[in-house]
Structure to design on (86 residues):
């Protein structure tokens, strides 16, 4: 089961879901509700940092290396002169 968040923010390489309309938190009971799903303290939730989907349970982590983008940055680095330090 999933809950959908309206926005996903990335800061320092960590996904953060904001504006989740279907979320309600009961701090005294130490649980939250995503739509119809109840999450108890200690339960796993997983966040897809690309699209903001929130999943109940632990999901497989898939890491992708942006090779083309890193190669482009490397080309910039080798073609831009670096000023000497004085």
């Amino acid at each position: 089961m999933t809950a959908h968040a309206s926005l996903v923010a990335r800061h320092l390489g960590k996904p953060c879901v904001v504006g989740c309309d279907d979320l309600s938190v009961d701090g005294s009971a130490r649980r939250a509700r995503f739509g119809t799903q109840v999450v108890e303290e200690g339960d796993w939730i997983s966040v897809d940092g690309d699209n903001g989907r929130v999943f109940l349970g632990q999901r497989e982590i898939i890491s992708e290396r942006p090779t083309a983008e890193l190669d482009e940055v490397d080309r910039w680095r080798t073609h831009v002169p670096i000023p000497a330090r004085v």
Notes: Helices lie at 67-79.
